[in-house]
Specification:
single chain; 73 residues; mainly alpha; 434 Repressor (Amino-terminal Domain); 0% strand
């Protein structure tokens, strides 16, 4: 799996969990203190998100980081 594909899968996983938890994009972006555009880029694998940002996302989603990063090839 390429880096780009991995980022896209992580982004899709973030979007999937966000939707399961019932967060609208706008609400979730506000909760994270980022713009909707930045959340869009994260969820679509357009940015290589920092570890700190991943931690914040996982806290907001009430999941462990490993749950987000454990993506099968």
């Amino acid at each position: 799996m390429t880096k780009k594909e991995y980022l896209e899968k992580i982004g899709a996983r973030i979007a999937e969990i966000r939707e399961e938890k019932g967060f609208a994009k706008e609400v979730f972006a506000d909760k994270l203190g980022i713009s909707r555009m930045q959340l869009y880029r994260i969820e679509n694998g357009k940015v290589n998100t920092s570890i700190g940002a991943m931690r914040d996302i996982c806290i907001a989603l009430d999941i462990k980081v490993i749950e987000l990063l454990d993506i099968e090839d």
